[in-house]
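Exercise 3.2. Students should predict the tertiary structure of the chain below and write it as structure tokens, then compare their answer with the key that follows.

Predict this chain's 3D structure.
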Amino acid sequence: MEVLKIVTAGSVDDGKSTLIGRILYDTKSLTDDKLEAIEKKSQSRGYDYLDFSLATDGLVAEREQGITIDVAHIYFSTDNRSYIIADTPGHVEYTRNMVTGASTSQASVILVDARNGVIEQTKRHFFINNLLRVKDIIVAVNKMDLVDFDESKFDRIRSDVEKLAAQANYKNQSITFIPVSALKGDNVVYRSENTPWYTGKTLMEHFESIENQDVYETADARFPIQSVIRPKQADYHDYRAYAGKLYGNDLSVGDEVTILPSMTKTKIKEIQFFGSTYDTAKRGSSLTLSLENDVNVSRGDTIVRSESIPRSGKELNATICWMDRNPMRLASRYELQHGTNKIMAKIKDIKSVLEVQSNQQSHSVDNLVLNDIGTVSMQLNKTLFFDSYAKNKSTGCFILIDKQTNTTAGVGFIE
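Answer key:
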């Protein structure tokens, strides 16, 4: 079944966890024991309503404080498709968590409190979604019940967000505005009688109407090799295949392909998945490929169509979201993991830091600190084949690993 991944973003107490809980409740995706636990906990706290945020806040600290700290992934399905919703924190100090959730999502729900309107954190999350090229943005104007479903409040927020969109660099975004009450359920799954002035879709109706071609960029096929399959059995003495996940576009039997970095050319002989053979491998499929020639291929190599070779070089310019408490400084060295490939990288120049609430660049900086988003140039110790993030998200991003602590220090998006 088709899977759509959605990230929620917004400031603290804008109602992200409550909104997801309401979706699960109204789509009957909560198990009986989970619903019973929510009812008991809500009663013990003296609430006269169900606290749906309890459906997603998994950490003890989250439940005690009523905030989201970590990224929670929630899975549910309808008759049309399966969904993964990433519930991300709203605090400024957890910006890195929001970037993590949004980087793999095809759609984003930005919640705005109808009472407060567009605030600094709204701008921050909007421009991060724009940086990550999330194509479908839903601005859910929440807590409409607390402003008596005032249409003018909704219109003012829409106007303010449209002004942000006019300043954004990435223009190929669809922005939809929906007035909701996550607590009461207005326009979440079911249409509300309290908003006769709103004639658009409910939030869930919008999710169901999103088409793959609307949220995925057209990109070149990229097949990073995860492992080489050589069975130790007499019946498969000469069998050799390559396992991995296909990104960007489809590959078919007979396609002429090039092995990177060796630049060896061959053709696809067979495509297999769980013992079945196929003529074409679809983007997003995990599969094995067999090649016509017995060429030298190993983990970390990439198979691409011969007519769409990516860029290559020993230098990278990239936008980095810094995730480490130890700052990034000039001349620092990190292990750069690009797909299954790992090479050493040295920070050559830190060009600027993004002021995410205004989408402006601040220059003359000498380091990146926790949650900073900056542009840097790096020197690599060997040639890397890569795409820009704008052209191909899968091969246009990487992570930086601090070899001393073995922690993920940053995530990068290649320019």
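Discussion points: The chain has a mean pLDDT of 86. The radius of gyration is 23 Å.
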